[in-house]
Amino acid sequence: MTRVFNFSAGPSTLPEEVLHLAAEEMMDHRGSGMSVMEMSHRSKMFTDILEATERRLRDLMSIPSHYRVLFLQGGAFTQFAMVPLNLFRKSHRAGFLHTGSWSKKAIAEARKYGETQILASSEDTGFTTLPPCEPSRVDPDLDYVHITTNNTIFGTCYDPKLAPPPRFEAIPLVADMSSNILAQRYRVEDFGLIYAGAQKNAGMAGMTIVIIREDLIGHAGPKVPAMLDYQTHAKANSCHNTPPCYAIYIAGLVFDWVLRQGGIEAMEARNRHKAALLYDFLDGSDLFRATVAPPARSLMNIPFLLPGDDLDQAFLAEAESQGLVNLKGHRSVGGMRASLYNAMPMAGVEKLVEVMADFERRHG
Length: 364
Ligand SMILES: *Cc1c(COP(=O)(O)O)cnc(C)c1O
Hints:
Elements (H helix, E strand, L loop, with lengths): L4 E2 L9 H9 L19 H18 L5 E6 L2 H13 L5 E6 L2 H10 L4 E7 L22 E5 L1 E2 L4 E2 L15 E4 L16 E5 L10 E6 L16 H6 L9 H17 L1 H22 L4 E2 L10 E5 L3 H13 L2 E2 L10 E4 L6 H18 L1
Pyridoxal-5'-phosphate (PLP) binds next to α3.
Family: Belongs to the class-V pyridoxal-phosphate-dependent aminotransferase family. SerC subfamily.
Enzyme class: transferase
EC number: 2.6.1.52
């Protein structure tokens, strides 16, 4: 068996312990004689898995009791529509911090159901910065403000320590946290709603985490499909219909792994260390360069460039021959992108920097 260091932006690398445990429990989950995939979602055994998964997430993120945790399907893309369908409840106006491709998609969906206001945009810098935003100038009647905490494609982040998200007093802040949930410590109380696809830091594709303040549930209009109404899922504890059972189970294993690593603080410290190793190399290099400047830098997704497409191809091929895969940059940025999610070990980043340094010695 050969494992590679997988720098994919998502779906992405998982902790090996989780994969081993899932493999071990595949044929016979704890004496049930079946895998979690084969169980009734109404069975006691699956209900226990679901409850443990929620409990671990609440524990990790210190989620207060007046927030509900939902495990849904449809990915962050479904949340782009579900958020306006449920949160447009008074003015039918929402504000957006436009920081890249994901916010653009969230805006496009919300616009179908109400008015969207771009409160700040970093489009003029090619989304390589975080745009300044003055919350005191914002329309106080907005139904919500939407932010993408970590911009997976462009590599910027509202880092809770270095560049915290703006605060909008009484307006609920909605966060797409798909690519840095559980990687950095945000205060759940600062948000009305947090959503995240699981396939980056919380397990496998097929499950979407929604953390929603209770007072924001129950406002969907009569024409909103039941499946797109948060109340449906809150009332049924995420079991209105068949939930993404196996993805919930895997997320539970990942949450348990994060807890055993020391929780979000320990992950964050490790993530800062990993990212610093790569950024320090990039900042000192005469050949490679980072596309984003501090303090807007993401710890999770680090785009970087070489001067010329030929060098990109040569580097990507060399990296792959060394077992470093999925480093090709997103087509809208080009070059390379290293995604250093929680499950990427330090050894993977050390190896990457070693291969980059060696490449620079021969091509610099
Ligand atoms: C990956 C990603 C998405 C897309 O999520 P899906 O699960 O494919 O719907 C949306 N937003 C952000 C910030 C992402 O990183």
